[in-house]
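ARCHIVE CARD
Drawer: 12
Card no.: 0347
Subject: one protein chain, sequence and derived structure
Cross-reference: see card 0346
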Amino acid sequence: MRLTPIRRAGLVPALLLAAAGTGALAQPPKQTLMPEDAEARAFQEAVGFSDAVIHGDTIYLSGVVAAPMEGETSLTPAYERAFARLDGVLKRLGASWDDVLVFDTFHAGPMAAQLDALVPVKNRYITAPFPAWTAVGVPELYEPTAVTEIRLTLRKPG
C-alpha cells in the first residue's frame, strides 16, 4: 500500500498519540516494605506479602492481627500489641497516624465485645480529623487465634 500525502498526514498524529499514550500508561514500579526481623521476613516471602506497598502518593499496609495470648482475659492487650506493631510500621515508613486515610477492621466473632476493647486503644493512636473506618464481620481470619485484623491505607508523608 502506497501512502498518499493525506494518509501520511493522518499517520504522523496517530503515531504521536500512540507514543504519548504509552508514556502516560507507564508508571514507576511499586515499592515494598518488608519486616526487619529475619524470621518474619522469611515467612512473608514464603507466603508472598509485604508489610506495606507504596504506590504513588498512597501507602497500603497489610493487615495486622489482634490475637489474645493464652491466659489473657481481656482483648485489650491484643489490641495494644496490634497497634504497637502498626505504629512501628508507620515509623519505618516515616509516617504517622495523622497520615492514615482509611482504617479497616475485620472481626471474627462477636463484634460488639471486640469494639468495646478496640475503640479505647484506637483512640490513643487515632485522633480527629478521623480517617474513614469500615468494620466488617468475617467467618475467620488467617491466624486461627486472631479476633480482629486491622488494615490501614495512608497518604505518603512529605
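Annotation on reverse: The chain has a mean pLDDT of 87. The chain is about 40% helix and 25% strand.
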